[in-house]
Structures are given as structure tokens and as C-alpha cells.
Amino acid sequence: MSKHKSLVMGLLILGFLVQVILAQNQEQIKQEQPQTIISSQQMLTDMPPRASYDPGGRRDPFRDLLGNRTGTGKSRTTEGFLTIDNAKLVGIVKTPKGFIAIVSGPQEFPYFLKVGDKMADGYVLTIDESKVVFRKTHDRGFPLIRPRNVVKEINPEER
Question: What CATH code would you report for 88-158?
């Protein structure tokens, strides 16, 4: 039993010494790290100056090439957007509020369209069990003088 007591006492002393050494190391680390407090005004004055661009007679690369002629801030191109021409009718779902058309876009993302939803070149006019009627109001970004209807139907085998 005395061996057991001496072993426990030895372990307790060893544990105490390890704690003392660790505490001393932590104090040394705290003393080595300088404690500096920077005010918000100092942070602002120490920041590098804002970037500026001097064209030096060259074209400004950040200016719109089309000159934003429409005044809406949008580009006239419809590339990459869901248009009536690039929309592929995948299915039609009947809900308590009406029909919803499931359409696949140019990047193969599904879109869920209701009557009145706008697209890049028109909007959804009507939806019934087997077809969707779109009203095309623009062509390549320019308004059409006479809007026209485009009908897209589901194949009879898929109904």
C-alpha cells in the first residue's frame, strides 16, 4: 500500500510542476506580445490612398461601350437570359390557383412561370392544360411595332 501512496503522491507533484511550468510559459508569451490599441482615426490615416485612374488619352475601361442609350441601365442584348425563343416547355402543373408552366432556360435551369410573368422579350399571356401562349413584345432588345403571340405546346405523348 505504501508503494501505491508514494506513486500517487509522485504523480500529484509531477502534475503540479507541469501546471506551474505552463503558467510561467503563458506569462512569458503575454509579456512578449506588445499590447497596442489603435484608434479608429489612426486606422483611417494608416490606410493606403484610394485607387484612381488616369486615362492618359486612352479609353476608360470602366465606361459602358454602348453608351447606355436606352437610359434604363440594362444592356440591349438578351444573351444568357430567358427569352421566349430559347425557352423549352417541359411541363404544366395544375394548382388550386391555376396553371404553372415549367420551362427550361438556356443554362438548363428550370423556371416556374405563371400568367403575367415577364421574360427578357415578352411575358406569359395564358396557360392551359396543354399549351402556353407567350406575348413577344421585343426582338433582340428592340420593341416590336406589333407584338405577336408565340404558342408552345406539350407533345401529346407527354400529357
Answer: 2.30.30
d(CA 154, CA 130): 6
Write down the H helix ranges in 1-151: 2-32, 40-46
DSSP letter at 118? Answer: B
The amino acid sitting at 81 is F
Are 142 and 76 in contact by the 8 Å Cβ rule? The answer is yes
Residue 30 carries which DSSP code?
H
Q: What is the pLDDT of residues 56-106, one digit of tens each?
A: 777 777 666 665 554 444 444 556 688 898 899 999 999 999 999 999 988
β-sheet bridge partners, residue 113 = 101
Angle at CA 156, nearest 5°, toward 150 and 159?
100
| Contact (Cβ atoms closer than 8 angstroms) between residue 53 and residue 63 | no
SS3 at position 45? helix
| Closest of 123, 130, 134, 127 to residue 100, by C-alpha | 127
Residue type (1 letter), 22: L
